[in-house]
Amino acid sequence: MRAEIARQNDVNVELSAYVSELKEENIRLKIETATAYELGELEEAAKNELGMLPPGNEQLVGIDVKTDDNAVILGNGEEQDSIIDNWISSLRNIFSAEK
After folding, report:
1. pLDDT exceeds cutoff 90 at 72
2. Residue 97 in 3-state DSSP?
3. How far, in Å, CA of 32 to CA of 25, rounded?
4. Quick one: CA torsion of 62, 49, 42, 28, rounded to 10 degrees?
5. Taking burial as the number of CB atoms within 10 A of a residue's CB, which of 55, 70, 93, 99 is the most buried?
6. Contacts of 37 (CB under 8 A, 6+ apart)
7. Which residues contact 23 (CB under 8 A, 6 or more apart)?
8. pLDDT digits over 48-57, tens only?
9. Cβ atoms 51, 94 nearer than 8 A
10. CA–CA gap between residue 84 and residue 31 (Å, rounded)
11. pLDDT, tens digit, for every residue of 4-53?
12. Shortest CA distance to 51 belongs to which of 9, 89, 98?
């Protein structure tokens, strides 16, 4: 019985490590995909495939940033996935409001 529990524990550890590797690879692939498009291609896809339009002048708001620009690396892939998905969803909402 103890040997079976120990074996299952080893399997669980291996599977957890594999899941972590897959999450890291997923993040890497999302970033790679996002950066693979040239701006012109991305703009064409947004217009033609998603029906997005650029914002009108009345929708543009200037922001005065008093602090230095920086990047924050999050703790795990789920947080990063969520932020990327929220960012993409926000962009879709902004551009689809123009229709």
Report:
1. no
2. coil
3. 10
4. 110
5. 55
6. 45
7. 76, 77, 78
8. 999 999 888 8
9. no
10. 9
11. 888 888 889 999 999 999 999 998 888 888 777 777 888 888 899 999 99
12. 98
Determine the Cα–Cα distance for residues 54 and 91; give it in Å rounded to an integer: 11
What is the C-alpha to C-alpha distance for residues 46 and 24, in angstroms, rounded to an integer? 27
DSSP assignment of 38-84 equals: -HHHHHHHHHHTT---PPPGGG-------S-------SSHHHHHHHH
State the Cα–Cα distance between residues 73 and 94, nearest whole angstrom: 26
If you count them, how many residues does the chain have?
A: 99
Residue 77 vs residues 9, 26, 31, 70, 89: alpha-carbon distances, Å: 24, 8, 12, 19, 18
Q: Is the pTM of this model over 0.70?
A: no
Residue 85: closest CA among 22, 43, 30: 30
CA–CA dist 79, 86 (Å, integer): 11
